[in-house]
Amino acid sequence: MLKIALSKGRILSETLKLFNKIQMDFSQVNEDTRKLFFDFEEYGTRVILAKPSDVPTYVEYGVADIGVAGKDVLLEDKKDVFELVDLKLAQCKMVVAIPQDRSIDMPIYRVATKYPQIAERHFVKRGIPVEIIKLHGSVELGPILGISDAIVDIVSTGSTLKKNNLKILEEICPISSRLIANQVSFRVKSYEIMALIEKLESVL
Ligand code: AMP
Q1: Does the beta carbon of 136 sit less than 6 angstroms from any atom of ligand 1?
Q2: Cα separation of 38 and 24, whole Å?
Q3: Span from the CA of 176 to the centroid of ligand 1 (angstroms)
Q4: How high is the pLDDT of residue 34?
């Protein structure tokens, strides 16, 4: 049985639609029940639902053979997994944003973010020493509350930034969902995984 970890939340319905396109109907997968995994004997597959940030961990430890995880999570918590395919779901970008009325030349001292590793690497690469402040939510409030001069966050439509009077200073990288695999499973179950990749690539 091929065990697939899928992220709960905003990208689940898009992910299920993608599998539906390759004739894998996972419509029984429902995050509103208490069930955490769903078996599909007809496809030889078990779907495991996980918090997005836990998907790479499940795959690294082999609880799941493969998974669908956001590039943001993969860049933030580097795990020993193979990244196989860009599924192009939930496309957005990681950016540095500052208040609209702040000049782009003003130095940045403090940065609030849910992604401290990504932010740290970005500012180190640019040779800018900053203090990174890890927040677990409402990062865009950082400059409003005066805890930071800038934020590093994901932007999709841009409406959250706009609502909070923020503007993009620079783009760090594009983000989308990736198919990842456990390194041992990729060898042991290569036939099943490669067949799945071929089907997914044919509909991307
Ligand atoms: P938006 O207002 O459409 O630019 O969405 C921005 C907010 O939604 C950010 O605060 C992000 O935390 C969240 N967000 C949007 N798209 C994604 C995504 N693909 N993955 C994770 N978070 C996202």
Answers
A1: no
A2: 13
A3: 11
A4: 87
